[in-house]
Request: fold
Amino acid sequence: MTGPSGLYWEAHGAKEGPALILSAGLGGHGAYWKPHIEALGQKARIFLYDHRGTGHSEPETRDGLLADGLGEDIERLMDEIGLDKAVVVGHAAGAIAALALARRAPERLSGIVSVNGWARTDAHFRRCIAMRMAVLEAGGPEAYLRAQPVFLFPPVWVSSHDADLDAQLPKQVAEFQGEATLRRRAHALLNFDILDDLPTIATPTLVVAADDDMLVPSACSEVLMRGLPHATLARMPWGGHACNITCPEAFNRAVLDWLATLPDA
Reply:
């Protein structure tokens, strides 16, 4: 459903238990988390949403979009659903949105799961985003989406799932968020910087880091781990940037084990 916030969202999982808001990466689609609904939904109330400007949500109209705006949208969604507090499970851009909210309104968060997130972008990530934007400019959405798996998944996974990736492409092209929206969203991520604020963010955080992430180096998660006062590190030795998709069982187990340690949960 799409409510007053302009954000499309869905509710799944248990009728009781901790509230988990699952926030996707740069693509923005809540459907990214579909493989996790069954496992996480056995212990928690699950809320998926499409970021503003993506999927079924209303268009993104903020020319000067900042990561704070992504965090504010989570708070708007919580108000609409009727949640005082929630755990935000965020992948990359979704993790940045959660961290931005933790800086702005920490009382709304019971916890954060940061999946391959960062406190400040590093040179490798900036090069990767520049490459992706160049592909988009030269070849359009289809070329961008064809190149995307190279950044998200380990090579052996891409090779073994090549036919599936090709089959998904037409739907991805049809649902593409638009070049202008994607560029605004990428710009917001590139400018995100809370490195100096990390010691002030008291929200319990599970930092999930894939050692073979070739888009956001695992060192970025290590910075979060060292800087956040109440952080727990879960390393995934294999899985790439989208490690929750390539290794869903290990990811779900890490999240559920950590949730069990939270007082609010």
The mean pLDDT is 97.
